[in-house]
Amino acid sequence: MTYDIAIIGAGVAGSYIARxxxxxxxxxxLIDGESDVGNQISMxxxxxxxxxxxxxxxxxxxxxxxxxxxMYEKVCQDLDVPFKRCGSLVxxxxxxxxxxxxxxxxxxxxxxxxxxxxxxxEEVHKLEPNLADDICGALYAPVAGVVSPFEMVAKLAENAxxxxxxxxxxxxxxxxxxxxGYFTLGTNNGEIKSKIIVNxxxxxxxxxxxxxxxxxxxxxxxxxxxxxxxxxxGDTVENxxxxxxxxxxxxxxxxxxxxxxxxxxxxxxxxxxxxISTTQNELNFIKEAALKNVPKVGTMFGKIIxxxxxxxxxxxxxxxxxTDGDFIIEESPVKNLINVAGYESPGLTSIPAVSYYVMNDIxxxxxxxxxxxxEENPDFNPKNKKHIYFKDLSEEEKIEVIKENPKYGKVICxxxxxxxxxxxxTIHRSAGAKSVKGVKKRCRAGMxxxxxxxxSPRVVEIIARExxxxxxxxxxxxxxxxxxxxxxxxx
Length: 491
Known about the structure:
It is built from 13 helices and 22 strands. It is of the alpha+beta class. β11 (182-187) and β12 (190-199) form a beta hairpin. The longest helix has 23 residues, at 347-369.
């Protein structure tokens, strides 16, 4: 089939841009080499919606961060994604760090960040009693927040598909050729023809571009490791706590999560693309760094329920580029191929504003230039079907839901109080779950204290039943390497 637009990469950038494309009567395809959407960078990150005070005002990060932050209430309401404006504090331990806070404050004003305040020692500790005693001040940004990034991507892809975008998973782009005004993408699942390509391939965006163009940017993979703590200690801090930033980055943060856990991390070290291993030395470093700002964390390491790592992609200077550290959002030297690359923090925050820009300032002018008639999609619906969060219902609401569908009366994941009805719902949605990890990302079954120790067998049974496949074919993650069952132990 021939498409108007082919988007490579179904992370937060590609999925959001696909949703913007679905506002128009265009033939759009969203392609990803993974077996689920948002399975790489968008899966494992800090989940923070940054206020926008730290990116240079003359950068693309500075242009889109604050604007994207302020768009989050609306998009999360439409998509039915958990989001909370908890606020953030960048803390200072001495007068020199206080000077840095004032610089951040002035930069935030230039970037249009509302409501910022410089707080002093007594004010800071009144707001966050568990901070270190020697913290003498902080930059407070009340618009900062936390979100569920994996739910965000799943709901973006779902909304795009519901509005007409075609989703092709397990589809790896192996070659790109340009002939007669069209691109031909050679993939492991056959050829795809498209007038325009949007390259949002995350860590592999430079590799994808080099399938057809001369290198003009290079991405460095950096790994960040994290700890997640049990909800029992989730109220240790109310705001996202950042150390005073350095040239190496924002540093080790201590943050509440939108679901009530506590998160600390990440470090940032160069790594190989795709490396998400954790190492004891780096995890120890994260622990020690977190203690400097929140000493109480030292009493809570017995409450850790999981550690994990995620990778980011940072543009670096090379012999063929001057790009260094900023987003790459532009039509490339290859006509009709748009790169959305180098999409690291604050990429998650910036995506609503970035996608609007890509659609309206890049894609629509190219479509007009190419003589493609563009009409608004009269059936576009920005809202997803509401997910029933059973544990958040009143007793009366629970009774009514169970009357309508008894599966909501069967709790499968006890830690998170996730019902069979919720799991079945995630499986049968557009861009729905097909694996244990897919269910976990969409409704949190298995994300609690026992990390799926009790509920995983039941989740496997439900997936097999709903997809009408043998239980042996149900994987943890549909990558062909994460099988759970191989056969019966007894006949």
